[in-house]
Amino acid sequence: MIKKNNIEKYVKLFESLNLENLNKFDGLLDENIYFEDPFNKVYGIENFKRIFSNTLNKLDNVEFKVLNIIFKKNIYIIKWEMIYFAFNKNNSIFGLSEVTIGANEKIVSHIDYWDSYNNFYVKIPFFGPIFKFVLSLVKKRI
User: Fold this and answer.
1) Domains with residue ranges and CATH for the chain
2) pLDDT digit string (tens) for 61-101?
């Protein structure tokens, strides 16, 4: 069971995320939130929301499923799956988020860890096979 604070609302918001409810992040995030993933490093609520707005606009049928949460003090590790439609097929990405709650009970940091190579680059039409080929050459040398 997770502690009663903004993390519960945060998780529920991700699990129901769509373009119409992005502004619900405003009450949960510190105004200077830091967000990082394999493609982004930003500060601020508007930049945070812009990333998820772009994701929801560029991919179809985006859904986040929270699979597990562990915490110690004010740091939460959230295991998740992101399901989406792109490159003419259904896809999913598994990852972990390190979410930190500040003294003001708002989320001050959200850092995502996921494998962008296997979960994104190799799925790009035309370029994916090239990435796989290059990796096979690198593996032969290691």
Assistant:
1) 6-141 (3.10.450.50)
2) 999 999 999 999 999 999 999 999 987 889 999 999 999 99
